[in-house]
Design a protein that fits this description.
Strand content of chain A: 15-25%
Helix content of chain A: 40-55%
Largest sheet of chain B: none
Strand content of chain B: under 5%
Structural class of chain A: alpha/beta
Number of strands of chain B: 0
Largest interface: A-B, 24 and 28 residues
Radius of gyration of chain B: 18 Å
Number of domains of chain A: 2
Distance between the termini of chain B: 51 Å
Structural class of chain B: mainly alpha
CATH class of the largest domain in chain B: Mainly Alpha
Number of helices of chain B: 10
Order of helices and strands of chain A: HHHHHHHEEEEEE
Order of helices and strands of chain B: HHHHHHHHHH
Number of strands of chain A: 6
Number of helices of chain A: 7
CATH topology of the largest domain in chain B: Arc Repressor Mutant, subunit A
Number of domains of chain B: 2
Oligomer: heterodimer
Radius of gyration of chain A: 28 Å
Strand order of the largest sheet of chain A: 1-2-3-6-5
Chain lengths: 240, 189
């Protein structure tokens, strides 16, 4: 035994150094895998609510607005949700990278695979109808989280551009409808020449509707097309 | 002293977990190789290199249960040594990579020199110039060239030591060789 070997063995004996127990290393690895899976799941949730967002968007309204398709796409992009998806995919990558064999895979492959898994789980959650529940949980727990409903209100509250939405308060004998928009303003809406899209073909009290048309005075609106509040022309069907 | 000449590294790890005397065999087996490796990748005195080496072996002993049997033990112990040296760089702001003359020449022969060049001529004339070349290399390139050409590690072993994917290792080696040749041209060697 040479000097250094002797010195090291002696130090181990004198300082009573012992190998750390195996369970500590196993636990660390299990925790990394668990956090990796949890991040993927959170990423999936944000993709599932992004799908809900897109499916309930009215993709065809750009035709009625004086804006480009690109501007509509920008309006319809769920930035916060996609940002959260990206964030959790990055965290998942970080955790995977620190697992025992995580260094063997290329960054692109880890991120790509994580994204595919998150999209598949998110897609499945959406198809199974869990997106609504997840959306309401997220909206209830994350401060300043703009839900699908709030976003839709924002898109449809532009009477100057021909978009109006609200609740039917009263139907007048001449057929005109008194509509209270989502900011509390009352509008008198002419609906006699409007096309009713979706399952409902006439107005009723407390009905929530979206209207494409033209503002004719400060509180009067001419409807060209009326749609139920929930649903879009593409994706989720209109609901009564 | 235990008789361990015929035992593999993995057997020694298993035995050292039950009887620490066997750990001495692992220390003896790797002491010289790791000492050389440490001297190649950091500029420290003999005493400091021995201190680092001692810390490495204590760390190895503490983490024996973390040794993954699918790796080569040598890759694992080189990884721990590499990490120990890096943390020392950070702590003491050591300047890395002071190559010895024989290392300079070995690298030059393997990367730049043509086969028909007389090795003796290179030995006599080029050592100082090669030192200049090595100083112009990026740290991560010098690090990978040491493992590939001075420690004679395979791509798989380097991947396990540096914890980088094999493809990245291959890319880094190619870039390092290219930078080495570019620097050689700049110095007109």
């Amino acid at each position: 035994m040479n000097n250094l070997t002797e010195k090291i063995v002696k130090k181990i004996e004198e300082e009573k150094i012992t190998p750390k127990p195996k369970w500590r290393f196993l636990l660390k690895d299990y925790i990394l895998w668990l956090v990796f899976g949890f991040n993927l799941l959170l990423g999936s949730v944000f993709f599932a609510v992004s799908l809900l967002y897109w499916s309930s968007a009215d993709w065809d309204i750009y035709k009625y607005l004086d804006v480009s398709v690109l501007q509509v796409l920008k309006t319809m992009m769920p930035y916060v949700r996609l940002g959260a998806l990206t964030f959790f995919i990055f965290l998942a990558y970080y955790n995977y990278r620190h697992t025992k064999h995580g260094y063997k895979s290329r960054t692109g492959l880890i991120i790509g695979m994580s994204l595919v898994i998150a999209l598949m789980i998110g897609g499945t959650l959406f198809i199974l109808g869990a997106s609504h529940k997840l959306e309401s949980v997220l909206a209830g727990r994350i401060p300043y989280y703009e839900g699908v409903e709030e976003h839709r209100i924002g898109v449809w509250s532009h009477p100057e551009r021909g978009l109006l939405a609200g609740v039917v308060e009263k139907i007048q004998p001449d057929g005109r409808v008194v509509l209270k928009d989502f900011y509390g303003k009352k509008w008198l809406v002419q609906v006699d020449q409007a096309f009713w899209r979706g399952p409902v073909k006439h107005p009723s009290i407390d009905q929530k509707i979206k209207i494409i048309g033209k503002r004719i005075s400060v509180d009067e609106f001419q409807a060209k097309e009326i749609r139920p509040w929930v649903g879009g022309r593409f994706g989720k069907p209109f609901q009564k | 002293m235990q008789d361990c000449a015929n035992l593999s590294d993995n057997d020694l790890v298993q035995k050292a977990l039950k009887d620490q005397a066997y750990f001495g065999c692992l220390v003896e087996r790797y002491e010289a190789k790791l000492y050389n490796y440490i001297s190649r990748i950091t500029a420290v005195s003999k005493e400091d290199a021995e201190d680092i080496l001692q810390d490495v072996f204590i760390n190895v002993y503490k983490n024996l249960n973390d040794f993954d049997q699918t790796l080569k033990f040598s890759s694992w112990i080189y990884r721990i040594t590499h990490n120990q040296v890096i943390s020392r760089w950070r702590k003491h702001k050591n300047s890395p990579f002071v190559f010895k003359d024989e290392d300079n020449l070995k690298l030059f022969e393997k990367i730049v020199a043509k086969e028909d060049v007389e090795a003796d001529l290179i030995r006599q004339d080029k050592s100082r110039e090669v030192e200049q070349i090595l100083k112009c290399l990026k740290k991560e390139y010098a690090e990978i060239l040491v493992l590939k050409f001075l420690e004679d590690k395979s791509y798989k072993e380097i991947s396990d030591i540096l914890k980088k994917p094999m493809g990245t290792v291959a890319t880094l080696i190619n870039r390092a060789k290219k930078q080495f040749r570019d620097c050689a041209n700049d110095f007109d060697i």
